[in-house]
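Help needed: design a sequence for this.
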């Protein structure tokens, strides 16, 4: 027999034998492995059945783990992962127990991260890597989590050929796409949507067939739909939502864990369409952003968008504060917070007329994503020159999203309308309307209704097609913003010194300028704040959000 044909006689890969035991009639094989304590076979079955093993055999699996020495279970990350999932399904009856289960994942992940390089079997490396990445993400260590994911994928490429050929039976083993999915979620939480998109697309492409090996692909589609919806790419989001169905069915108990991104995406799409009923239904399905879970910043941002779109901004601010407190942030989002939380905070502040706080938040965070709300509040405050300057700067930003572009076009259109440059106003409004017809209607409600109706009349567009309606007698909503107080860099430094209780002499020494220069700047600060002394100036500055929260206040 030729060497080319010998493999046909000798080939009986363990993976295929495991797959045969894990079909619809394989329950006996699983129970036999549990009863006999055949841990190697049980781990292979865990790879094939994935989530279904702890779901179908949770009590039996927990019984086996209770009999095992703790050290032995700790050396088997696949078995450990299945056991924690089984515990979650059988024992986590309320939020407190669910949080305790998530804490178990974190603790085991920390331990496994310390000995990740000691594992040799591909399935062990994948399971240990995912648990270690989860632990790092939970602690906000996104760079560490990404480093673990990159090492695991590189290690598998160097040491394992499993999954290299799409027609191979081996491809169904090893939880395909799981590491790429975890890296994608990590990048989402780190605020790198482009990087996340690359990893998530790879997870979708690597995922296997149903009934057990498609879960990473379905979850990747859900998160890709979310990222598209956040940016305002409606057609792309709908396309990814449709692909979830084509991936294969997801058990009901897994839907919230794997497909939460899709639920949040549907909420955002409904908000953009100004459909409060569909949006509320999706948000109710998504649950509370205060609960543990990777996607809580996106869910919190979606709830904030609902509050802005449907005139509940004060409640939205209270809700955002509660969410941030529940996740240990201690305050509403500020510098260093996730970009979607920063934008949600800025939009809520703008909707309550707190234009100065929006400007102060953008300056403190240094985030280009906050330029659209800054341009909008300056327009609403009557500062058309400032609004046009900020809008022009934002439009030049390569990271501008379709939603941002629509808002900025509307800012520029209203500026030209007010200045009598009607041709330019019409052109800008038509650009915005084209984006609006793709489903982005909510931004039109952020601008004065009379000016939106005027622009519709001048362009021949039906305002109802853009979600713009005439005011009813009891409709008192009108976007406003108080006067914007803009301080120079040196004036802000002087204000911080005043808030700390420093004298003009101390402030001058700290910044290397003369005392007379400081006194001149103090007078300018007082004039801009319409204040006559330090006490009233600090009170006004605090009200406008011009003093950083961490600044110690004088007694």
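Sure. Designed sequence:
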């Amino acid at each position: 027999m030729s060497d080319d044909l010998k493999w046909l006689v000798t080939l009986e890969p363990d993976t295929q034998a495991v797959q045969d035991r894990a079909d619809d009639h394989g329950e006996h094989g699983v129970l036999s492995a549990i009863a006999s304590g055949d841990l190697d076979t049980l781990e292979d079955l865990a790879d094939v059945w994935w989530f279904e093993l702890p779901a179908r055999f949770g009590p039996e699996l927990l019984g086996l783990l209770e009999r095992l020495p703790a050290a032995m279970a700790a050396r088997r990350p696949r078995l450990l992962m299945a056991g924690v999932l089984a515990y979650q399904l059988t024992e986590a009856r309320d939020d407190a127990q669910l949080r305790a289960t998530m804490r178990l994942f974190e603790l085991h992940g920390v331990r496994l991260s310390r000995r990740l390089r000691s594992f040799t079997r591909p399935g062990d490396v994948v399971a240990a890597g995912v648990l270690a990445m989860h632990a790092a993400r939970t602690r906000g260590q996104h760079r560490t989590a990404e480093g673990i994911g990159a090492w695991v994928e590189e290690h598998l490429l160097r040491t394992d050929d499993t999954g290299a050929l799409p027609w191979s039976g081996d491809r169904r083993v090893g939880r395909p796409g799981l590491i790429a999915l975890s890296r994608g979620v990590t990048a989402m939480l780190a605020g790198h949507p482009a990087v996340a998109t690359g990893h998530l697309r790879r997870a979708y492409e690597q995922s296997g067939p149903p009934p057990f090996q498609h879960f990473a692909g379905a979850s990747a589609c859900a998160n890709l739909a979310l990222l598209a919806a956040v940016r305002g790419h409606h057609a792309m989001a709908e396309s990814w939502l449709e692909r979830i169905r084509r991936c294969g069915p997801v058990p009901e108990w897994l839907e919230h864990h794997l497909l939460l991104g899709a639920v949040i995406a549907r909420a955002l799409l409904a908000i953009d369409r100004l459909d409060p009923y569909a949006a509320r239904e999706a948000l109710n399905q998504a649950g509370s952003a205060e609960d543990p879970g990777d996607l809580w910043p996106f869910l919190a941002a979606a709830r904030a968008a609902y509050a802005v779109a449907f005139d509940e901004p004060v409640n939205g601010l209270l809700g955002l504060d509660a969410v941030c407190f529940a996740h240990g942030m201690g305050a509403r989002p500020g510098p260093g917070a996730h970009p979607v939380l920063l934008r949600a905070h800025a939009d809520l502040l703008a909707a309550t007329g707190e234009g100065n706080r929006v400007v102060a938040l953008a300056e403190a965070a240094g985030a280009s994503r906050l330029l659209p709300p800054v341009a909008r509040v300056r327009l609403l405050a009557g500062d058309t020159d400032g609004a046009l300057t900020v809008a022009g700067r934002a439009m030049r930003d390569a990271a501008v999203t379709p939603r941002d572009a629509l808002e900025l076009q509307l800012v520029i259109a209203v500026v030209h309308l007010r200045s009598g440059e009607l041709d330019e106003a019409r052109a800008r409004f038509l650009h915005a309307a084209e984006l609006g017809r793709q489903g982005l209607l909510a931004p039109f409600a952020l601008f004065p209704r009379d000016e939106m109706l005027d622009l519709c009349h001048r362009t021949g567009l039906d305002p109802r097609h853009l979600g713009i309606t005439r005011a009813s007698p009891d409709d008192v909503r009108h976007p406003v913003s108080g006067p914007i107080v803009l301080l120079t860099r040196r004036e802000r430094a002087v204000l911080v010194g005043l808030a700390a209780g420093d004298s003009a002499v101390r402030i001058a020494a700290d910044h290397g300028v003369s005392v007379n220069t400081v006194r001149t700047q103090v007078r300018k600060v007082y004039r801009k704040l319409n204040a006559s002394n330090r006490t009233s100036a600090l009170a006004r500055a605090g009200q406008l959000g011009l003093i950083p929260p961490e600044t110690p206040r004088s007694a």
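Residues 13-159+171-175 form one domain.
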